[in-house]
Amino acid sequence: MRVIHAADLHIDSPLRGLGRIEGAPVDDIRLATRRAFTRLVDTCLEDQAALLILAGDVFDGEWRDFNTGLFFVRELARLRDVGTRVVMVRGNHDAESVLARHIPLPEHVHTFPAEAAGTLELPALGLAVHGQSYGNRSVEDNLAEFYPDRRRDLVNIGVLHTNAIGAAEHSNYAPCTVQQLVRRGYDYWALGHVHKRSILHADPWVVYPGNLQGRHAHETGPRGCTVLDIDNLKIRSVAHRDLDVLRWAEISLAAASAADTDDLLGTLRMRLQQIVFEAGGRPVLARVLVDGATHLHARLAAHPEPFAAQTRAIAADLGDVWIEQVRFRTRPPAETEHGELLALHQALRDELEALAADPQRLAEYGPALAPLGALVAPYLGLRPDDPERLAARLPEVEALLLGLLAPDLPHPRPPAHLPPQDPAAIRPSEHPEVQ
């Protein structure tokens, strides 16, 4: 028997950044989430799935086009005709969706209630499915703690829309831990909410299938559903199935190792060719990031347009590939920064040498130090801004200032002609607190 687990369909969710993509088939791309759901239903039919599990966020928030809901119902009707059951929970986006509240679903679709977790027993399939929907967008309670006990002599599946891993990119709704899920004793947890596919635990299985279709440049790589094969009340295999109809990619180009922009563009071409191959005929939308310390920094910062145009030309040459955006995060080479610090250090040392050689020049700092000297003199019993004491401590001043400027750089020894510190000038025996 085959069970298919999907989540986060976000049907008709607007894909971000399409307006920036020159020449892309924007109208076709906008239908990507619909086409991915159609592929999900096709997969259920081809695999003769007994059950489809939808773990929340079928719709996309306040989207009010009822054609979206009608499309969803028509696709589900295809499953009814072959006897495939559907179970679903409503996630945070469904909870605020007008469509989810007002579109009646076919009789072969079971939606779990929001008031408390419930159980749907399907003895003919050997399954017990447990789930709870969201009653509102922001669910902060740990729903998993109150899921029903497992049913004996059945494969138990829990369906939950949750942030079980504390993912920062997703709101912390229905928070729980993997161990809390494992302790329920179910055979499989069908999770939703986190859009990246991940297997959090095996035996028992705790799985995020990821969303069906990447919707922007941060949802890269293959997207799809998870397929379970069950035999003799045992889950025999759990596998991912790609269903996305277009593929997002993010390409980072290391500028530090590039001799020139041709090197960067050559690397980009090879990376795009690999991504196109892995996409298996799907259109590819790519974001390019040029990053690192490089001698090309000034050129790229002043004139980014020619490089961006060349990246788009390479994409056009490869076929169904479009560059969504080119970003630059370059900086001057590290040796330049290092050199600037060394120059600053040298200027500081030169000034201190001049002060040591010219008492009159050192005395010119007196007015600036006078307020501080007057403030601490009553506690020290001396004037720390006294020119003789200042001259005696110039080597310490140099070491302190160089350390504050750049503690990671080696500091040369003070010049030999700086006067050595005179311990008597500090009189530690009289003022032990000054060390």
UniProtKB/TrEMBL annotation:
<keyword id="KW-0540">Nuclease</keyword>
<keyword id="KW-0378">Hydrolase</keyword>
<keyword id="KW-0269">Exonuclease</keyword>
<dbReference type="InterPro" id="IPR050535">
    <property type="entry name" value="DNA_Repair-Maintenance_Comp"/>
</dbReference>
<dbReference type="InterPro" id="IPR004843">
    <property type="entry name" value="Calcineurin-like_PHP"/>
</dbReference>
<dbReference type="InterPro" id="IPR029052">
    <property type="entry name" value="Metallo-depent_PP-like"/>
</dbReference>
<dbReference type="GO" id="GO:0004527">
    <property type="term" value="F:exonuclease activity"/>
</dbReference>
<dbReference type="Pfam" id="PF00149">
    <property type="entry name" value="Metallophos"/>
</dbReference>
<feature type="compositionally biased region" description="Pro residues">
    <location>
        <begin position="412"/>
        <end position="422"/>
    </location>
</feature>
<dbReference type="InterPro" id="IPR041796">
    <property type="entry name" value="Mre11_N"/>
</dbReference>
<feature type="domain" description="Calcineurin-like phosphoesterase">
    <location>
        <begin position="1"/>
        <end position="196"/>
    </location>
</feature>
<feature type="region of interest" description="Disordered">
    <location>
        <begin position="410"/>
        <end position="435"/>
    </location>
</feature>
<dbReference type="InterPro" id="IPR014576">
    <property type="entry name" value="Pesterase_YhaO"/>
</dbReference>
<protein>
    <submittedName>
        <fullName>DNA repair exonuclease SbcCD nuclease subunit</fullName>
    </submittedName>
</protein>
